[in-house]
Design brief:
3 helices; alpha+beta; five-stranded antiparallel sheet; 2 domains; single chain
Length: about 120
């Protein structure tokens, strides 16, 4: 039985276990398979990555304080974060991947980098 390329459907020559006719077809197939499936998901992931870049850029030392205005001016979107960590004293840290923040009051935030023990 003739083997057909999974991407372009042309006949494959060579080894019997080949799935693609070329590196280009293999790359195209895998890029499509591994890409975000919808525009909505891509947009959310872009917002999360941007939030992380903003936090990391404003927090080069690993812990600092910034105003809410500064975060908003940079384009930070408070509604988007990857997870929360609640301390024993009920303080809530929100994280965008490894970069986190906690509100000290309505206008001031402490930025932190996720520590290994925070899960």
């Amino acid at each position: 039985m003739d083997q057909l390329c999974k991407e372009c459907k042309i006949k494959i020559f060579g080894r019997v276990d080949k799935k693609f006719c070329s590196d280009q077809c293999r790359t195209t197939w895998n890029n499509r398979l591994n890409s975000d499936s919808t525009k909505f998901m891509r947009n959310i992931n872009n917002i999360l990555r941007k939030n992380r870049r903003i936090l990391a850029g404003l927090n080069p030392s690993g812990k600092t304080k910034v105003t809410k205005t500064k975060l908003l001016d940079e384009g930070f979107k408070f509604s988007y974060f990857t997870n929360e960590y609640i301390t024993k004293s009920k303080n809530v840290y929100r994280f965008c991947y490894d970069q986190g923040y906690i509100a000290l009051d309505k206008n001031l935030y402490t930025l932190v980098v996720r520590q290994e023990y925070v899960e």
